[in-house]
């Protein structure tokens, strides 16, 4: 009875324990469920809990099995009633064991609760962290977007920079070439500079020489000016001298001649032959002196007078000259000329020249029986040469240089009248035309007078 | 001399030249009333009735004036200028007498209104011919105004 009571008590105990266990299991399940809901990050702990659960479940099952076995054993005990003390003891032990196990389980449960709380706390912390992470994530996303934008911008900027870089490279290459060119030019410039320095020195030297020359020229210019002034003064003197000669010398001569003439006209019947001859000589000489003065004046005028060159038909000029000569001179000479070359000369002066030359030719051939005068022209070495030949008295060539001097005569006044100014005038006129004059002759065999004038073409050039 | 009937006025400072000129005119049968004045001042007095000729009837003008250029005091060109500048005298023909054709004053004389000129040559015959010829010419050309 006692035993059965005990057994009943044990049974009740066990039943109570079983109920308790069930309660605890249920609590554990709840905790388990709670745990199951833990996040993925809690997998490990969850797994541990699962494992623990399983263990508990397994242990529960074992307990159930043991309970069942105990029930079976109880039933056996119930039916056997033998040696159940041992078994009871064993059961007590087993019970103790179970109690112990129960305490352990409680401890474990308490630990699990703590662990659970810990996990919940950690969960919350993780939630906070997750939220923070989300916010951070969003920030990061935003920053990422910004960075992408910046990256795009940078990409564009990069492309721009690449393009600019390439352009710069091109420019750089061009600049390199340009640099080389500049180097080359610089060298050329240096060379030129060196040359210029030399040229400058040369120029400086030349400048100094020029300055010297300029000073010399100024000096000589002054001299020239002085000379010109003196020439001008002298010319003016000469002109007033000519005027004086013309007016003042001729005036008394005119009186001498005029009064001699009056004497002749009014008193020739009173004078005897000799008286009349002497009176005639007075008049002739007065007249001769007048001619001399006129010739001298002409000669001096030619020195001052300018010349006007024109194209002169010498054939026509000679016609005029000869008709004038024939008016005042007895001319029995035959004069030949034809198709003479034209001359570039001052018409009046050239007329003067031919008047002189032809008058001379007529005069110095007048004593011949058949006086012959010939005029020819020829173009030679850029000059037109005219030659006036006669078959008159001629002259000795050793006196040829005296022919053109003023008052120089090769014949006496008794032989041929003249003042000795005519050929001097001819020479002066021809020289004023940049021409030449010369003569050839032989005593008793005539003479030829040549004049040369620069040719038309030469003048035109 | 009746100054009012002068037909030829000879203005010449050289007595010799004046005598030769007058002789040349007479030989050329030019016997017109003539007065010889020895310088320009006298000539102007005569023409304009001033100085020693004050009171002369200046409307009685010479038919021709023979004027030497080179004269002391008032020279021939000055006389010519005044003759030709005056309405009363500017129509009187003036024949210039000069010693040389080289004389540059001949041109000036022409530009002042001289009518002719005679170069006084050494040879009297030529001079006489020229004087008589020109004198006659201008005497005939210049018939007195009625």
Provide a descriptive summary of the structure in words.
The complex is a heterodimer of chains A (461) and B (146). Chain A is α+β, with helices and mostly antiparallel strands. In chain A, 73% of the residues lie in helices and 9% in strands. Chain A is built from 8 helices and 7 strands, in the order H-H-H-H-E-H-E-E-H-E-E-H-E-E-H. Chain A starts with a helix and ends with a helix. The relative contact order of chain A is 0.04. The model of chain A has no long low-confidence stretch (mean pLDDT 83). Chain B is of the alpha/beta class and 146 residues long. Chain B has 5 helices and 5 strands. Chain B has a 5-stranded parallel sheet with strand order 2-1-3-4-5, sandwiched between helices. Chain B is globular. The interface between A and B is medium-sized, with 23 and 18 residues.
Give the SSE map.
The complex is a heterodimer of chains A (461) and B (146).
Chain A: H1 2-36, H2 43-80, H3 84-267, H4 273-304, E1 310-312, H5 314-328, E2 334-336, E3 343-345, H6 347-364, E4 372-380, E5 383-390, H7 422-432, E6 436-441, E7 447-454, H8 456-460
Parallel strand pairs in A: 2-4
Antiparallel strand pairs in A: 1-3, 4-5, 5-7, 6-7
Helix pairs in contact in A: 1-2, 1-3, 3-4, 4-7, 5-6, 6-7
Chain B: E1 8-11, H1 15-27, E2 34-37, H2 40-48, E3 64-68, H3 76-85, E4 94-98, H4 105-111, E5 116-119, H5 124-141
Parallel strand pairs in B: 1-2, 1-3, 3-4, 4-5
Helix pairs in contact in B: 1-5, 2-3
């Amino acid at each position: 009875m006692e035993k059965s009571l005990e057994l009943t008590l044990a049974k009740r105990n066990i039943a109570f324990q079983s109920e308790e266990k069930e309660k605890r299991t249920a609590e554990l399940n709840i905790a388990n469920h709670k745990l199951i809901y833990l996040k993925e990050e809690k997998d490990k702990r969850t797994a541990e809990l699962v494992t623990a659960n399983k263990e508990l479940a397994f242990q529960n099952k074992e307990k159930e099995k043991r309970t069942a076995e105990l029930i079976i054993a109880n039933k056996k005990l119930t039916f056997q009633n033998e040696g159940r003390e041992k078994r009871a003891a064993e059961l007590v032990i087993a019970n103790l064991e179970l109690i112990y196990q129960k305490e352990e389980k409680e401890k474990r449960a308490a630990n699990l609760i703590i662990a659970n709380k810990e996990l919940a706390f950690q969960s919350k912390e993780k939630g906070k962290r997750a939220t923070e992470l989300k916010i951070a994530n969003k920030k990061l996303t935003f920053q990422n977007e910004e960075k992408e934008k910046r990256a795009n911008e940078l990409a564009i900027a990069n492309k721009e920079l690449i393009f600019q870089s390439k352009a710069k490279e091109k420019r750089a290459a061009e600049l390199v070439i340009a640099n080389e060119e500049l180097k080359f030019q610089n060298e050329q410039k240096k060379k030129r500079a060196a040359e210029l320095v030399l040229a400058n020195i040369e120029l400086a030297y030349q400048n100094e020489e020029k300055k010297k020359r300029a000073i010399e020229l100024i000096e000589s210019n002054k001299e020239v000016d002085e000379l010109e002034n003196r020439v001008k003064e002298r010319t003016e003197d000469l002109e007033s001298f000519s005027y004086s000669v013309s007016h003042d010398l001729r005036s008394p001569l005119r009186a001498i001649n005029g009064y001699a003439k009056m004497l002749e006209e009014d008193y020739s019947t009173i004078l005897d032959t000799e008286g009349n001859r002497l009176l005639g000589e007075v008049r002739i000489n007065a007249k001769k002196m007048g001619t001399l003065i006129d010739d001298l004046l002409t000669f001096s005028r030619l020195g001052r007078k300018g010349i006007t060159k024109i194209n002169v038909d010498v054939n026509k000029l000679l016609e005029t000259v000869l008709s004038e000569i024939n008016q005042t001179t007895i001319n029995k000479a035959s004069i030949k000329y034809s198709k003479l070359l034209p001359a570039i000369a001052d018409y009046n002066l050239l007329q003067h020249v031919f008047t002189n030359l032809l008058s001379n030719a007529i005069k110095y051939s007048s004593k011949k029986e058949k006086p012959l005068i010939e005029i020819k022209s020829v173009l030679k070495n850029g000059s037109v040469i005219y030659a006036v030949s006669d078959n008159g008295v001629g002259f000795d060539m050793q006196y040829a240089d005296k022919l053109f001097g003023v008052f120089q005569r090769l014949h006496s006044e008794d032989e041929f009248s003249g003042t000795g100014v005519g050929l001097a005038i001819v020479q002066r006129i021809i020289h004023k035309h940049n021409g030449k004059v010369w003569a050839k002759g032989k005593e008793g065999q005539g003479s030829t007078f040549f004049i040369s004038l620069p040719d038309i073409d030469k003048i035109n050039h | 001399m009746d100054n009012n009937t002068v037909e030829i006025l000879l203005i010449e400072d050289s007595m010799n030249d004046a005598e030769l000129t007058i002789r040349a005119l007479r030989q050329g049968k030019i016997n017109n009333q003539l007065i010889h004045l020895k310088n320009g001042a006298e000539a102007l007095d005569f023409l304009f009735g001033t100085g020693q000729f004050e009171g002369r009837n200046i409307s009685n003008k010479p038919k021709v004036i023979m004027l030497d250029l080179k004269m002391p005091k008032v020279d021939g060109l000055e006389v010519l200028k005044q003759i030709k500048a005056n309405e009363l005298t500017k129509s009187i023909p003036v024949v210039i007498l000069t010693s040389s054709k080289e004389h540059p004053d001949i041109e000036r004389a022409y530009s002042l209104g001289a009518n002719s000129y005679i170069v006084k040559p050494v040879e009297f015959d030529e001079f006489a011919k020229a004087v008589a010829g020109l004198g006659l010419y201008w005497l005939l050309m210049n018939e007195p105004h009625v």
